[in-house]
Amino acid sequence: MDKLIIEGGRKLHGEIRISGAKNAALPLIAATLLIPGWHVIHNVPDLRDTRTILVLLESLGAIWKREGETLSINTETLNNLEASYDLVKTMRASILVLGPLLARMGKARVSLPGGCAIGARPIDFHLQALTKMGADLDLEDGYVSAFTDDGLSGATICFDVPSVTGTENILMAAVLAKGVTVIKNAAREPEVGNLVDMLISMGADIAGRDTDQLTIHGAKSLMPAEVTTIPDRIETGTYLIAVGAAGGEVTLKNCNPAHLPALLEKLRATGLIIKESVNSIFVSKPSIVHSIDIKTQPYPGFPTDLQAQLMALMSLSNGLSVITETIFENRFMHVAELKRMGAEIQINGNSAIVKGVKQLRGAQVMATDLRASASLVVAGLAAKGVTEISRIYHLERGYENMVEKLQALGARVSKEKD
Ligand code: UD1
């Protein structure tokens, strides 16, 4: 297993390009299962998770090729309708193949994702919605088997809370269902909008993009699509926060500031100087970082996927910060590791109370999940001394060329075998 070595305390300077969004690319790739023919997806990041979903599609019989950042995928030759435990266990988003397979083939068997480091993360919303659309579901041996005799039918689905992959799975199921599907309390994340755009370019009839109610008129057939993956707003946010912690002046290119309303407002409140254009953001750090409170919320609120990184920044603020996690119940695993680096944090239920310190110290720490790992990188860049982060395969799931990008900004970062 590889570890990351960071010699902290160097300011970041320069310009880097933000990659395509992992959480957008995964549903776009899954959507190619809806219809045979060559689909083309641009700006796809080359990451552990995007490779995993391509292996999953291959195991179903799909073929694909990558040229640079462009993927071409053809699912004409599907010959297996089962997503195995081995693939699903490494990436929960594998559940995204259930909706499109069921819609096109009338049948699918997908391993249940099982426990996840950041909480129970059930898929009951996905299953209840598909049942309402006429699927027969069986849960056995850790798999969900789904069938429809006569295709899926439109239905009105109301999620208890907005679920991102739940909305995406049901959207993909609904575009080939008979009649009208209405998804109420739908997730409004930009990644959902990217999928809506792809489905519309396939010929689907979807109204309500970017709102909490999506109305889908099912189509008899669709056609292959060409689509561009949106920039990764979580990668963008992570680098902005890293500059806040380590200092310096950085320009992020090929990003979309409009997808980060809550983060940009909060970072400005800390005193960071942020200048936006349509597709780039300049950030620079003043001498003092003011403490702020945040509460994670579904989009457009503050993203749970940036909570850990923001906590690393607040560890270096000038006061007390209360960080409340409302989306996932066990998403404070970075706290113990940040404390090893000298952070002063107390957990009280679903809130973390962070007292800013003058300086973090390098330490040996362990990555526990994707975004927790990113918070340790942020802390390590700012800390005095050397930080060693083990188990960085978590980071490789979601950050394309992180080491190279940080090196381009002048950070002393390297990867070593453990
Ligand atoms: C997606 C993102 C993940 C992000 C999360 C929240 C992808 C691949 N992953 O995950 O990075 O952290 O959104 O923004 O896009 N829930 C249920 N039952 C369900 C589904 C969800 O109770 O069937 C609950 C979850 O436990 C959680 C909330 O709904 O409390 C939102 O989760 P959801 O939006 O579904 O997360 P994911 O789609 O898994």
Tally of distinct domains: 2
What is the name of the CATH topology of the largest domain? Answer: UDP-n-acetylglucosamine1-carboxyvinyl-transferase, Chain
What share of the residues does DSSP label as strand, in percent? 25-35%
Bound compounds, each kind once, are: uridine-diphosphate-N-acetylglucosamine
Detailed description of the structure:
This protein is an alpha/beta fold. The protein has 2 domains: 2-19 and 231-417, Enolpyruvate transferase domain (UDP-n-acetylglucosamine1-carboxyvinyl-transferase, Chain); 22-228, UDP-n-acetylglucosamine1-carboxyvinyl-transferase, Chain (Alpha-beta prism), CATH 3.65.10. It contains 14 helices and 24 strands. The strands form 6 sheets. The protein has a 4-stranded mixed β-sheet with strand order 22-23-1-24, covered by helices on one side. The chain is elongated and about 65 Å long. The mean pLDDT is 95. The structure holds uridine-diphosphate-N-acetylglucosamine. Uridine-diphosphate-N-acetylglucosamine is lined by residues 23, 26, 92-93, 121-126, 161, 163-166, 187, 191, 304-305, 327-328.
